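As agreed, record minuted below.
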Amino acid sequence: MRRLTILAILGVAGCNSNWRTEAINNAEAIVRTEIHDPTIKFSRVEFMGDSQTGQTCGYFTTQVWDGGLITKRFIVFIDGGGGQNPFIDDPSARFPINKSDFALNWQDQCVKLGYNDTNSTIAGSTDGTSPPDK
């Protein structure tokens, strides 16, 4: 009986991580499609919340026309974000959001829900909203 209980717990834990992994993979695919760049690199991606109303938060790095790299933050809501998925910290994104509104969403939807954003401030930033230099 004890073995059966342990197997059931492991099975539930395994299923629990599968939907989170799937949500992260889907969020990355949405961002790749939005940015029109299948080669972007993701970092510090975490899923916050539950399988119905949660969101994926993280950073991506892409190469720009002059060969440099730029790092941006994103939020993808599992429920579609009211049709405005993804939220990207870039005023030229398809669903533009100004810096202060994105920073507020980042704090409320990611950091306050447990996202570990301890290494996200570059030198000279005082608000903690700037991504790291890459």
Observations:
- Confidence is low (pLDDT under 50) at residues 1-14, 121-134.
